[in-house]
Amino acid sequence: MNERFHPTALISEGAEIGEGTTIGAYCIIGPNVKIGKNCEIRNHVIINGHTKIGDNNKFYQFCSIGEEPQDLTYKEDPTEVEIGDNNVMREYVSIHRGTMKDRQKTSLGSNCLLMAKVHLGHDVVVGDRVIMANSTNLAGHVKVGNKVIIGGGTNISQFVKVAEGAYIGGASAIDKDIPLYCTAYGNRAKLRGINIIGLRRAGVERNAISEIVDFFRDMEASTYSPRTFVETEELMKPYANNEIIAQIKEHIISTKMGIAPFLT
């Protein structure tokens, strides 16, 4: 032990702690945990399981990382949690390890903010620069793309995909996919339009944003289902050169859960 580790912290012999990382009072670090450089582990944090954490992460008090999944099929398998760099996990964040029936790993990218009481269930995949406000809960197997913002008190059902740049309003219940750069909220969540601010922040040109908005409105007003709309060449011809629309089309065609309905 040294001045970086509080004397009440319990750090297993097999744990690997990077240079500059500090560990506060009453923390418990398991034997299969690897923590990178310059992380700040505040008081009463528990990190268990086969967990790999990158550099410059901050964990506030009472976080629980790498614990067994809430899955009845789990049998003490050596599944994992992997966390990138420069993330902030506020009070009571919990991230459970993966299961053998999926990718065997729960993943959080880099430069994310998880506010108090956020939960990532088993086999969840979260991208980079994601913000989840207080009491957001992700069930098992959920996938969240880069630059997504999720309002507080939101619950997302298992296997749902929230694509890159989406914006989810607070207190939403999501049981269908949310396409690229769409906004949605409600219980159950409905699509409310395009995340124009997110597109601007991503550096998308004004003309391209206008096309995306027109595409969304045309698809919403159509008598066709979204899948039929995007598979109809004549309807999609005006948007043939828009990369974002092409990605939305691919998501709509490939989704297994279906996309959230439009606001009516």
UniProtKB/TrEMBL annotation:
One of its GO terms (molecular function) is acyl-[acyl-carrier-protein]-UDP-N-acetylglucosamine O-acyltransferase activity. SUPFAM superfamilies: Trimeric LpxA-like enzymes. Residues 177-258 form the UDP N-acetylglucosamine O-acyltransferase C-terminal domain. It is an enzyme of class 2 (transferase). This is Acyl-ACP--UDP-N-acetylglucosamine O-acyltransferase. Its EC number is 2.3.1.129. Keywords: Acyltransferase, Lipid A biosynthesis, Lipid biosynthesis, Lipid metabolism, Transferase. Transmembrane segments: none annotated.
